[in-house]
Amino acid sequence: MNLFQRINEVRKAIDYIRKDKSVSTGGGSYKAVTHDMVTAMVRDHMVKHGIVSYPVLVDSQSMPFEVDKEMNRSKQFRYEATYDFHFVNADEPKDELIVRIQAHAMDNADKAPGKALSYAKKYAVLKVFEIETGEDEESRTATNEFPLDEYLAEISKAPDMETLKKAYAKAFAAAGDIRDKDSQAAIIKAKDSRKDELTVIAS
For the whole prediction, is pTM greater than 0.90? Predict the structure, then answer.
């Protein structure tokens, strides 16, 4: 097989990778798929179909630490890089595909280049093999299994405010993990309703 036929075989084998890491943003968090997860899912298929991949650094620069109005230096600096990722037919090395990827990373020491390379490699692989990581697919694989009625029942039967708070937090977080906004809305409504009932009972 030529390289594109081999790539197509990997595409047939892998169509989706579940996001495996929660990334904090300071004001919240979001789900992401990691470099290690992508590598773990793709490596055996690339080996089986004789595809080798390697990066070539095209250009890079480390930006200076930023300074605010009070002359306080930022804790991290930005590293920017451009890579050419070569996907090669192991049986015919001249048969190759080159994908150019730009990446950047923030760090306070020497890890920024490694972070940028991992980011670039992850997206080169995801795009070449057309692997989905989106929220829609994640919801499609998990929503049908979400026991909303059980969570709502637990909330509605909470005997006191403290128990209600814990039941709500557990249910809301579980719905958030699968990006089920409809279930989250129902959970909020049930919590508010039970809170009103407990307030009347207490008075």
Answer: no
